[in-house]
Amino acid sequence: MRGMADFDTCWSIRVYYEDTDAGGVVFYANYLKFFERARTEWLRSLGIEQLEMARNTGMIFIVRATALDYLRPARLDDRLSVRSRIERVGGASVDFYQEAWRDAPDGSGELLVRGSIKIGCVTASTLRPGKIPAQVRLAMQSAATTANAAAAREPARPAAA
Question: CA gyration radius for the chain?
């Protein structure tokens, strides 16, 4: 299992009835919503408000590609932690790796879903690719560098399933 220091952020959510399907299991597409919210809250924690970025720079982020592995189901009332980290920051794109974990009362967790999300930066008016605003790019790179430095200090742990 990777340590928390390997991640730029961790965001918690409770599973509500509206998140589940007829079988009482979290509907698979809702993990994309959970991951989106975690990335948005992480940006907010860096002082980046997406609406403000759009107003000030004319640039917005869009999801370009996703690839998720569903390992175990989450169910109604589970408490989940969504862990996110930046894998790569380019001139007009950002690649994230994200995981959803079920929290346990004893502090342990169970990995449920993991995936890669590719984000593009586009001009809001044309939806054509554009450069990530410099201050946004610097904030992301700084957060990723800090997380990588913390991960280097953390002792290695066995890999998760």
Answer: 16
